[in-house]
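All the exercises in this workshop are built on plain-text protein records. Sequence and backbone structure share a record, each on its own labelled line. The question running through the whole workshop is how a given chain folds. The record below serves as our worked example for the rest of this section.
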Amino acid sequence: MSIRSFLTAYSFKQYADIHQLPPRGGRLIMLVVAALVSVVLLLVFRSGFEVLEERLGALGWTLFADETLEKRVPIVAIDERSLAEIGPWPWTRPQVASLVSAIDSAGAQLQLHDIVYPEAKAGDEELLSALQSSNGVLLAQVPGLQQGQATQAGLMTHPLSGISCNVGSGLQFPSTSSYLAAPASFSAVAKGHIAPVISADGAVRKTPAIVCVDNQAYPALALAALLQATNSSTWEASITAGRSFLDPAYILQFSAYPGLDIPLDSEGNLRISFASSPAAFRAVSAVDVINGTADMSMLSGQWVLVGGTAFGMADIVPTPYDGATPGVELQARLLASLLDFDIPYTPKFALLIQVLVTLFFATLLYFIANNTERFTAYGLPVAVLALPLAALLLHIQLLQSQNFWLGWVVPALYSAVASGLLLLIEHSRVRAERSRVFGNLNSYLPDDIAREIAYSVPNSNINAKRCDVTLLSADLRNFSAFGEARAPEESAAVLHFFFTRATEIIEQHGGRVHEFKGDSLLAVWDGHHQLAATAALKAAIAMQSDLSDSLLTNFAPNGLEPLALGVGIEQGPALIGSIGPAHRRSHTLLGDTVAITLRIQEMTADIAQPILIGECAARQLGDQALESQGSYLLSGLKTPHVLFAPLLNTSPKLRASSGIEGEGFSSPQAPDLKLIKGGHR
């Protein structure tokens, strides 16, 4: 490479750092990417996240369960003992009639049978008579909402008026043409449906307020109880959309029950409250009620729920409290919520609230990521866990204080994904910076020394070790005069080219540059054996040949001596390591071998030899053509040293070769070594 091409390639070219840390805009992009990833995850794993949200979201109830005894809705349970004493289910109509009469005799205000009595059977007249003579009664009917059902048994009765089941009329309730109901002879007895909404995990957390069967709107059993209690001849209702920020999606109202606003979600479902502990609901065995051995006072004046709790009746569902809860308990929870006018619901703008919480989390993460490195290093890992927990705690707090089911998965998932992505960015940034710092350090120091410094804690102690080395000192002669005559930029370019090419040659021959100092360099080979000495001599010859042809002889300012290269080589012990205070360390190479090598290099100008070799290194080059230059007292030293020079050919082609044997020397004759008395080596 010529000096002019070097100036073009190295001096005036701008470089871009491809490992530059992403700017703040990059972090904003990652926050947007986190939003997209979260949306994709929510869509792909929708059912799984819904189950997770429901299960952990119910902690607001289960962790702070209300133990207050619910006396208004006692349960008459058809339990295992009842089946054992009276007989397996279904019981005969007279047996059920005796249970109805016993409950009515106890003074119950209303009986709600969470049981369907399908098909006409013997004894229907007796059961119907008991039902009609009671203070008030409701029977269950079950619309078939599950796919594949095509059953039509009995007769569905007591629909709501004022509610349209036509498509496009507003809120679309579940619709079916399948059902299971009491026979037509029981049409005068009030009824309500008990069709549940079954979640992906099999749990029942909601129930449709209304189910459309053959374009007729039928209310849920708990809602029918409210209408039955009013003794209204017509069951009329209306649906309005929520208006305010915290209103439910829809509000169900009954004409016969003014002031009662029943919140429905966007699908027309009622959410079941699990605020009360299961122990808060009193239950008495049906066989004890029939036999009169139960405390009948607990039924007096109450709304009594009759339902099966035995496993054989197949009415067992998982809840937040238990994996096997009788379905009649869910009806009791619905009734209690309606009586308290306190039904949990999801606000109409719950998703918007979650988005606002998510934006707050994104802002917080952006602040953490752009703070100090220490704050970011600790803040982001904490945020991965703390922000999803904060979203869950916000949900729990609102559920406890306002009975709002807000939801928490959206902000929790986003904060976890965003924190993770920002952590990944910071980790990449730290690795890139560490690599950059190590690369920069390695450009000033040998690789092993740079690695030792980079991965050790600095201290004020001497950290050095003695080792045997082969040293090469190369100096650019006449450079001071050159720098005085030329522009600093050109001097820097020439010096940079010299250092760059010399380093390449030294490293090609197994050495490493220890330091650049002024217009000279000091290179090191480990060991003081023949291989190290031979490699150093090869590097010296290659530098003389390459640099003389490309730089030194072709670039001589007018009136100045041309640039030249002087190289000194010697072997011996040296101390390599770091010295200085902890806040300002210096990597150094100490010992008389260093001083001798530097002085040998200085002698190249005095005796007009481009390469000089000290006597210790020359001993290792016994098979090479070396010529003794005599004994010299080197500057600053007290002991004379014999210096040797390789016998180089004058042919440019031969000088370009870095080989020691053959072309690089005039003959393979043994060197004329002469030891000076008093030498210390």
The mean pLDDT is 85. The chain has three domains: 26-44+349-425, 59-339, 458-664.
